[in-house]
Sequence to fold (658 residues):
Amino acid sequence: MRVGVVGPGVMGGHHIAVWQQLGVDVCAYAPGAETRDAARRSYGITVHDELARLIEAVDVVDVCVPTDLHCEMVTAAAAAGRHVICEKPLALTLADAVSMRDACRATGVQLHVAHALRFFPDYAAARATVEGGGIGRPAVLRLRRTAMMPAASGWFTDPARSGGIVFDLMIHDLDYARWVAGDVVRVFARIRAPGGGGAPTRAYAILTHVDGALSHLESTWGLPGAKFTTSFELAGSGGILEHDAAATEPLRVDLPAPAGEGGYLPPLGAGDDPYALELSELAAAISGGPAPRVTPDDAIAAVRIALAVGESARTGRAVELSQEGAR
Amino acid sequence: MKVGLCSFAHVHAQGYAGLLANLAGVELLAADDDLERGRSSSAALGIRFVGTFEDLFATRPDAVVICVENVRHRALVEAAAGAGAHVLCEKPLATTLADAGAMIDACEKAGVLLMTAFPVRFSPSVRTLAELVREGRLGELLACTGTNQGQMPGKARAWFVDPAQSGGGAVFDHTVHLADILDWILGPAVEVYAQTNRICHAGTVRVETGGLLAVTYGDGTVATIDCSWDRPDTYPTWGGMTLEMVGARGSVAVDAFRQVVTHYDDANRHVRSIPWGTDLDARMLNEFLSAVREGRRPQPDGEAGRRAIEVALGAYRSAELGQPVALPLEG
Fold:
């Protein structure tokens, strides 16, 4: 299998590193010369200067460009008969998301959307416990996610490109809530973003699921002094699963840092990196193995819920989601 | 000062009695219309049981603590006011706004004080949070995340889950503490959205056990409240209360009942949290008795209690409609 990463930025670069760890033949494409040079230096790979060259050279196109470019890249890959891996979120509109799925179906290629949270071992273990009946029927879920404010110069803070905090950050938990507690029928959301001056952004969503479960989602960008952290609490009729990632760090170092080192982090082998687990599961599916734990329809459903979050926050009203979904 | 404890219907009554019995200058009398329960509970506590509420009022108490079932708060508070006793009333103050209003009026007319029992107002961490916000240290306020989750209280007291006696389930029971603190810090709420469910304990109770609210305040701050009775039977504690407030400059988070020692107990085959933090009930009773002695309005007062139940009642209406509801409620 030969993989071509489109957009070797922060996430694309990590994908390249993982493909290399997995022993997969990988190249990349970037339109800008500086980005191409940086990727060549960092990974020692071929970096094409035309998308068509990359597509020609690979079996699988791995789309890691800013979200607003996903549709164009996925459609081009599908048209050329290449399997597609696409970073989350699939798209910023339902129409794009559906057309991307349909474009891949039309040429008989696989589409896999990299909703990585499903591969994080804490989240996966909790969901497996729920599936095994460990908390009875899911009743009230709490999902919390805090990240540093993305750099102002990047595309993340341009909602037209990234979809803002809902599509970039909250969507992980929107997908997870649906994976654990079922389809969502009603969405209420509020987004508090005074903007500027280093103030944080906080988004809330209250989801009502088809079987009556409720989910409270809280996503925050840029809380002064806060690092990336996540937590969840899954309460059901028969028990509770609690998890706070910050409280589960296995290594605490109270030593003066040697000069020049950024800090102590336990090395992540391929067995420990959720992105490695994710890409290897998706690659296995492409090679004829079992369907992975996340499907294009899951990704489309996540887009739909994210759109409802935005609509509720804008209108102030709760948004009903019909259950026919996007066919 | 003569203080009457009215009824052992509420699980908190025993705690109040224990605290009041040990206060110098307080003569504690207990009354209960369930005479059997009143007699045995009083005996176990070593306090004097005088009989029915009428028997208690005949002794002209200076103040009373009302611990009857929620739906009976109004009648007993009106009787206490009529007997000239200052009142500390368990939460929720009443089950309807009309009842709450009548209780406030009755006490006003009789010239007696009315306080609502919100012990978490007396948490040192909560008070520090309130101070930091008031001093502007958080900058422009954005959002609050509140949780007041618990185990289903029906096992301890069946009336808690009988809507005819309690006024409702988890929403009525657990919205009000946080609604009161937020009202105290942010002013009155202007809108509430809520969704409820009955998945936990669905086989045992008829009332809602799960609830999520989003409450908006005049300055645009959005606060979410999780009032669910979703702590399982095996949970090491009854539940807890947390409140995080986020502003432009940073955040402050309170976990009001975090101060516990964890006990892994093979003999009883369970894990339990042993609380060692500040006794909030003691501070609350101190505020009540001080207000009575000094002849001043206690906080939280009856009006605060009324505003807190208004948020809960608005939440029920919103859950029915599936849309947010403006506060204050009309009609």
Notes: The longest strand of chain A covers residues 138-147. The interface with chain B takes residues 137-140, 142, 186, 188, 190, 192, 194, 197-200, 202, 204, 206, 208, 212-214, 216, 218, 220, 223-226, 235-240, 316-318, 320 of chain A (CB under 8 Å). The mean pLDDT of chain A is 92.
